[in-house]
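Internal ticket #5521
Category: modeling
Description: The requester needs a full-assembly model to guide mutagenesis choices. All entity lines are attached below as received. Residue total reported by intake: 326.
Assigned to: D.W.
Attached entities:
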Amino acid sequence: MATVLERVTKVIVDRLGVEESEVKLEASFTGDLGADSLDVVELVMELEDEFDMEISDEDAEGMATVGDAVTYIEKKQA
Amino acid sequence: MTTLTGKTAIVTGASRGIGAEIARKLAGAGAKIVVNYSGSQEKAEAVVAEIQAGGGEAIAVKANVSDAEAVKAMVDEAMNAFGSVDILVNNAGITRDNLMMRMKDDEWDDVINTNLKGVFICTKAVTRQMMKQRSGRIVNISSIVGVMGNAGQANYVAAKAGVIGLTKTTARELASRGITANAIAPGFITTDMTDKLNEDIQKSMLAQIPLGRFGEAEEVAKAALFLASDEASYMTGQTLHLDGGMVM
């Protein structure tokens, strides 16, 4: 079973067309990974599908980096 | 021949008037239709039956467009029944006319909630699916009074002008995902509402219309079909005036 980070990374690579090596925990979606605000909305939608969970708009707004997303998902799954 | 084969359209306020006509027209072009209604269940079911009798597919779904939960449930129902949502026609609307001096807060709120907030709620609800599909058509029914103003309709006019601005913003936000948004601003269209007006008022209205007649709901439906189809592929953020030339 792939880890949360691996699955999040795959979604990001597919959605944003970035290299896997660029997807670091501290990488910010808009600053480092070249996402615009609509890309971030889509990314959250795809994470919801990937992990079969609802991510509220408030929670989504707090996710700026790859690490934020991974931590959030791991916490929610626990 | 414009075709919508394989597409699914949600038409709000489709139990009667312009909405029902749009539902019939899109169904005639091959779209599967969600006939949304708020109160008139029998009329909505009659529209569904008519579409089915013509060989089309349709379901009636009750949802007050200003109720986000109900709208979300409607979109889920559309997805379960038809598997996609390709077209949204925001048509549902009400009037609570009064002179501004006499207009009560709840008359203002009711009209803004249904006619403007309802468009926001329905658009938001379908956007997720349309973004995934990388395509979608949003057609908002505004009104010519939203462009020109109208005494006695401060609430309605504000909502309909708001819809034009919302249409432009929707168009800009979603263009990169293959979703277009356009509005139609009908003038005086023959419906139950205009039939009730007395002869003098009808005459004075006609005097303002260069084409010299009221419009028919079917003429609005034809424009909606155009905007919902591939024929309008390079058009977004626009408002079509269907008013016999009243506003130029």
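Resolution: model delivered.
Comment from assignee: Chain A touches chain B at residues 38, 41-42, 45 (CB under 8 Å).
Ticket closed.
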